[in-house]
Every structure is written in C-alpha cells, then in structure tokens.
Design brief:
- The complex is a heterodimer.
- Chain A contains 16 helices and 14 strands.
- Chain A is of the alpha+beta class.
- Chain A has two domains: about 200 residues, no CATH class; about 180 residues, no CATH class.
- Chain A has a six-stranded mixed β-barrel. In chain A, strands 2-10 form a two-stranded antiparallel sheet.
- In chain A, α1 packs across α12, α2 packs antiparallel against α14 and α12 packs antiparallel against α15.
- Chain B has one domain: Rossmann fold (3-Layer(aba) Sandwich).
- Chain B has seven helices and ten strands.
- Chain B has a six-stranded mixed β-sheet with strand order 6-7-8-3-9-10, sandwiched between helices. In chain B, strands 2-1-4-5 form a four-stranded antiparallel β-sheet, covered by helices on one side.
- The two termini of chain B are about 20 Å apart.
- Classes of the chains: A alpha+beta, B alpha/beta.
- Chains A and B meet through α1, α11 and α16 of A and α2 and α3 of B.
C-alpha cells in the first residue's frame, strides 16, 4: 500500500511531478549526450592519431622511450613474430628504426630524424603511408629512395626527384653516409617534426646505420582501443623478454592522453554543475510536496504510522519519479547518441583546419558506451536521494500534533 | 474497568516565550465502555486534554495511565504503537488520505498492523456494510460529502477494535441532521462493541447525548 500511496501522491499534483520528471529527463539526456559526444570524439581522435603514426601499441627496447637512440634496439626474433601473429586482436605490426642524422642538398644541410620503415607493413598499422602529400611512397624493397617532411623539402630548397646525402652516426660509432633520391613528401601536422622528418626503407636504414636485423620499435595495430590491456598482457606473456617493453598509445603519446584528461575533467565539471542544478530542482519540489502534506502526514502519524515508514514514503516517491525520468532520459539519450553516431557533427572552415592540423577528424561523434548510461543514471539517482535527505529529515522530525495543526 | 487515568495534569505552552497555561491540575478517570464528552468554551483546553489522553502530546506535569501503564514516560515510537493498537481518532476535518479510496482509508491502519491484503479487504467491507457506507468503497474523499467522509473516518477509527476512540469536534463541520446520524452511529458502536468514546465538543447535539459530561473552563474541570 505504501507503493500505491506513493504512486498516487506523485500524480496528485501532476504539474509539479511532470516538472520534476522533466528536470530528471533533461539532466539525463543532456548528460548522456554530452558524455557520449565527449567519449565518442575522444575515441575518434585517439584512433586518428594512433593510426597516423604511433600505432595502438609499441614493442620497444626498454630504454627507447626515455632515450630514443640506435643503442636502444632489439632483434626481431621468431617468438616476437609468433606472439604478434597469434595474439587475438592484433591487426598488423610494423618494425621501425629511428636515428638522428644530417641531410645535405647542395649547400643546405639540416638535422634529420630518420625513420626506417617497411611501407607494406605500415599500411596495415598506420595511415601516413597512404597520406602522402606529394610524389609517391617508396616500396619496402627500394634501396635509395626517401620521403621527407614537407617543411624539410622547403628548408633544403629541394624538390621531388633531387638527390640528397644523408649522414648519420652508426650503431658501431662510425659515420655512415649515402645518397638518396627524394620521391615524396608527407605532412603530419607537426611543423617541427616535418622540418626534420625522413622516411626510408627499413633495410636501407639497417644498412646505413649498420644495424644488422635490429630495430628500435615495432608499432602494432589493434582491433579495438578497449582490448589494449589484454593484448599488452598477452604479448608480455608470450614474449617474456625483460629487455623489451610493451607500451600502449597513452604511454607512447602521453601528451594526447593529458589533453584528453584535461578536456574530460572540464566536461565532468560541467556535468556536475548540471546535475547539482537538477538536484536543487528536485529538492525544491520534494520539499514543497512534503510541507504541503504536513497535515496529512500528521494524521497518519496520529493513526500510528511509524515515523520511518513516512520517511520511506518520501523516498519511494522520489525514487519512482527518478526511475521514470531516468528510463525516459536513457531512451532519449540513446536515441540522440545513436543519431550522432550515424550523423556526426562535421566542422568546416577554420575549425576544420585546426582539427586537421592535429590529425583529428573534424567531427563530433557520439558513442553508445554502456558505462555512460550507467554512470549518468547512478549520478542522478545518487543526487536525487541526497536531495531528498532534507525533506525526509523534516518528515522524520515531524510530530503528529504539529502536522495536524499545520496550515 | 478503568482504562484511562489522568493525575494532576498540567500543560503549559510557550507563546512567543510567554508561558500560557492550557490545563491546570486535571484529574480524570475513564472506564471501559464509557461515552464521555469534554465540553467547554473555545480555549478552555478541550482539545489539549484530548491530545494528551490520545498520546499525541505530553503533559508539562502529571501522569496519564492507559490500561494501567504510565504513557507519559514512553518515547515517540512507543506512543505511536499505542495509538496504532489501542486508540482510534476522529478529527473535526475528517482528515482522510485524499489519494486513497474510502475502503483504502479504512484499510490503511490495518496495513500498518501488517494484516494481509485479503483479510483487510474483507474486514473493511464488512464494517462498511455494518455502517451503511459500502457503496462509498471506491470513492475518494473529494467525491464524498462531509457526512460520508466522517462516517468513513469513524470506520477507520474503529476498524482495529481500539480500546478508546477520541473524537475532536467530530460534528463541527456537519449539519445537524448529518451530525445526528453520525452520533447515532457512534452510540451504536459504543453500546454494541463496548468501545469507549471520548469527545471534545461544544456542539449541543453532542453534549445532550453525553452519558458523562466533563466541563472544562480555563484549563480546569468545572463540574
């Protein structure tokens, strides 16, 4: 009967209950849509960035992250290849070498960040090979072709087809030098990097730098950002090499993670404000509805209703309204998020250019991640119950006689 | 058999910090099955005395014994249990729960006692039949007249077979004919079920039917 009483009390003042319900629905839809856009866009941006160059995970020599040099290398033994081929969720892998060097064209010389790569394997892991800015990408077998950063080409005052000389300190400490032909340019968005970036074939790099079959990094593509922990554990288990480290994208690219965390905190803060505003709305309506019924409450207390039952009644009424509001809010929120997955908001103009500089897709896309619905629902439910504390306390302290005399 | 006993009851209210004496040295004994009317002019302390006897309020001084037990020392929860199990209340403004139907209002106190749904319904319907208000079963308070609401309130007050029913100005909002019918009903319940009734009223209809009349004046018993 308490439930029946609560249900009927809710609809006794339809307008007030509908306003409360609307507040809960509004908060749920707004929170779900905003979190959906935030998390959906983060995932999109992370994928854009890691698929451009770094990969979802990297296998590195344990010293490479802090000191990226030729000495931080490792041999690609069969157990590593087997681990990469047999671990579920890995879509591709690409070994790389990195070295500092000098590039010269005529009288111009510039510092160079040399990456030895295998374009055929990179195509399965990253997108920069496909995103050639001008010219073409060399093949994995080519021995004297390089692709340089757009800015480096300009700084050298060279053009595609010109021959340049590369000079670099080799693994054994000697100086290696070789002529290469520029066959294309890439644009990665980071001008500083583009001013020194050089891609060459892995075998060419190993030969130039006297690295034998060694590499510094293997970039790995995974099927899903969520599976990285499992893949990392599986690879560690299978490779079992204390000199190697398996790093997920956020450890390789901590700046991106920090930027996302910063944005995420501001998003959560805004949601917090939204939910607190709704909490005051709920507090106001529940308090009004309780004070309005003090006389009625006084009568039921006089009849002998235990004080706690009356407190439960206030909570049941709030819970019923909150649950209905959350149900509607979740359905509408899911519809909004689904719509934004199918029809993402796409930017144009300067904002698009800004996004593209950072290799983010110029889009706001949502997600139907269940944790969003769960977290938003639990937050609103918690805040509703907290909002109810004061009205419930007032009911708990109400004396039958004071209630009956209340006007 | 003595059911209620008040000894040297004093009740002093604070009105903006000024003590106001509502009851002064009241001594009273009510026996099982009595039909008592507490009468007196407005401000004489009728309702205050009824509230004290009904365990709704505590005296400033003095003792109240209900079925031999001192209820002035009981806490809020214990008094609530006494009201639920032993007492019935009828209010001047009926005070039915507006969102419940007549039968649900009658069932309400049985629900608090943990009586099963089926038994509640049967008992409430039987009582409504006895009081001639069965046709009101599914009506809500706003669909009933004052007299009908007060009959339902009487049913709600007696459905748990209380030892005492306290009625505060039960006829104040009713016309004389309806008030007469209601009083007939309560007299019938008093004689047939031996339920003790204590009224507070200044209505002549009620006072004339009193089997025992207690007149209050300025917080003291005057007769």
């Amino acid at each position: 009967m308490l439930l029946k009483l609560a249900w009927r009390n809710i609809w006794k003042n339809k307008r007030r209950s509908l306003i409360t319900l609307a507040a809960v629905v509004f908060a749920a839809v707004m929170a779900i849509a905003m979190r959906g856009i935030q998390l959906g866009t983060y995932a999109l941006n992370i994928r854009s960035v890691v698929e451009l160059f770094s990969g979802y995970l990297q296998i590195q020599n344990k010293n490479y992250l802090n000191n990226p040099s030729l000495s931080a290398n490792f041999s690609v033994h069969n157990n590593i290849i087997n681990a990469l081929k047999t671990t579920k969720g890995i879509l591709g892998y690409a070994p790389r070498i990195y070295a500092d060097g000098l590039i010269s064209y005529k009288d111009n010389s510039r510092g160079a960040a040399i990456f030895g790569i295998e374009p055929d394997k990179e195509k399965n892991v990253t997108t920069f090979v496909q995103n050639i800015n001008s010219g073409k990408f060399f093949t994995s077998d080519s021995s004297n072709e390089i692709v340089v950063g757009e800015q480096l080409l300009k700084n050298l005052d060279a053009k595609i087809g010109d021959e340049v000389v590369l000079l670099a300190q080799c693994y054994d400490g000697t100086l290696g030098n070789q002529k290469f032909k520029i066959v294309g340019t890439v644009k990665l968005g980071v001008q500083e990097l583009e001013a020194s970036l050089i891609f060459m074939g892995l075998k060419s790099a190993q030969s130039l730098l006297i690295m034998g079959g060694k590499v510094n990094v293997i970039a790995v593509k995974a099927d899903n950002l969520k599976n990285l922990g499992a893949i990392e554990n599986s690879l560690s288990e299978k490779i079992k090499n204390p000199d190697l480290r398996i790093l997920t994208w956020n450890k390789v690219n901590p700046e991106l993670e920090q930027a996302i965390q910063l944005d995420n905190v501001s998003g959560i803060f805004f949601l917090g404000i939204l939910i607190v505003i709704v909490a005051f709305g709920i507090l106001n309506t529940v308090l009004m509805s309780v004070i309005e019924r003090f006389k009625e409450f006084g009568v039921v207390l006089a009849i002998g209703m235990p004080q706690m039952n009356l407190t439960y009644l206030v909570y049941i009424e709030t819970l019923l309204l909150t649950f209905i509001g959350l149900f509607i809010g979740n359905v509408l929120g899911a519809a909004v998020n689904y719509f934004l997955i199918i029809h993402p908001i796409t930017f144009g103009g300067e904002l698009k250019q800004l996004y593209e500089i950072y290799h983010f897709l110029p889009q706001l896309r949502s997600t139907l991640e269940p944790s969003i619905f769960l977290n938003v629902s639990l937050s609103i439910l918690t805040i509703s119950l907290l909002s109810c504390l004061y009205p419930a306390y007032k009911v708990y302290k109400l004396e039958a006689l004071k209630g009956i005399r209340h006007t | 058999m003595e059911i209620l006993k008040a000894e040297r009851l004093v009740k002093i209210y604070q009105d903006n910090g000024v003590p106001v004496s509502a009851l002064n040295n009241i001594n009273l004994t009510v026996s099982k099955g009595e039909y008592v009317v507490i009468a007196g002019p407005s401000g004489s302390g009728k309702t205050t005395l009824l509230n004290l006897l009904g365990a709704l309020d505590k005296p400033t001084e003095g003792r109240i014994y209900f079925e031999g037990e001192d209820i002035t020392t009981k806490d809020k929860n214990e008094l609530s249990k006494i009201r639920l199990h032993k007492l019935g209340f009828i209010f001047q403004a009926y005070n039915l729960i507006p969102v419940l139907t007549a039968i649900e209002n009658i069932e309400f106190s049985m629900m608090l006692l943990g009586i099963s749904d089926k038994e509640r319904k049967e008992k409430a319907l039987a009582l409504m039949d006895e009081l001639g208000i069965k046709e009101l079963a599914n009506k809500r308070p706003n669909e009933m007249s004052g007299g009908q609401q007060q009959r339902v309130a009487v049913a709600r007050a007696i459905v748990n077979n209380p030892s005492v029913v306290l009625a505060d100005e039960p006829t104040a909002n009713l016309d004389s004919v309806t008030a007469g019918h209601l009083l007939d009903l309560m007299e019938q319940m008093n004689s047939e079920k031996n339920i003790t009734f204590i009224f507070s009223s200044h209505d002549k209809n009620v006072i004339d039917r009193a089997k025992r009349l207690i007149i209050l004046k300025d917080g003291r018993i005057d007769n």
